[in-house]
Design brief:
66 residues, mainly alpha
Length: 66
Amino acid sequence: MRAVDLEQASAVCMASFMEAVAPSLGPEGIATFAGIVSVDGFAGRLSDEKTCSCTRPTARWSAWPS
């Protein structure tokens, strides 16, 4: 992912999440995911590693309902 892709990537991720996963979560889970896929969230991970860290876990998934 490149810096110019961040806004669109964030929007796609959030829209998909809101339709498919968010209805089963509470506000805290939604807020956590929103922070992960925000433009700032993506940008921070890009600047940390200079590569996309999409394959590395960035949240405590076990805290979310299964």
